[in-house]
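Ticket #4471: structure export looks truncated?
Reporter: QA, pipeline team
Priority: medium

Steps to reproduce: submit the single chain below to the structure queue and open the exported record.
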Amino acid sequence: MITKLFIITLLFCVVNVAGKSQGIQLGFDITPSFQFQLKRNDVTKIRSSVSGNGFSTGLNVRKHIKDYTTINSGLKLEYIAFNQKSGSFIVSGYRILGVHLPLIITQNIGLSENWFYSAGGGLNYNFSNRNFLLGQWVSINGIVNRVQPNLALGLNYSPGSGSNFEIEALVRYALIDNYISEQQMLSQSNTHLASFDFSIKYFVNSSNEN
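Actual output as written to the record:
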């Protein structure tokens, strides 16, 4: 119940601010992603990674603050899956379901009016974390850091200044360990989540509208 209220409140705030502001574009996106658990053993210093995949979709809000500069936010529902298999059987797995609140600035790179770089960050609230153990899915919400701030860097392409579409490739890196400190000490390792996102965005009103 608390999670649902959290999502509804954030969504209401974003839409309310957008509706009262001039020069705001509202849209939505479809974003498949490649996900990674980047691990380091604190004793041996050996690094490793586990790859997975994900998907997010949700509301986008964009405001032009200069001719070729925009500030971007929104609210997205995100699903992440990690699987380690033996043949067709899952040996271990990890599932994450959460919401993502980004804050990104895009700026024209100067070579073409269609290409932009993007930089910023965001905040994830992962309200469902489950591990596959002994043939069943078990909640591990108690041992993970469910609030995850992240940094982001990417590249955007827009077909034209009045276009409603935008394509974005974005790399995100979580700033804090995925697991709480007690779990880190038990495992003698740390794990940071990272992703490569490929978004197709559509805005319901063009950048020329106020």
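Status: closed, not a bug. The export was complete when the record was re-opened. Leaving a note from the reviewer for reference: The first helix runs from residue 2 to 20.
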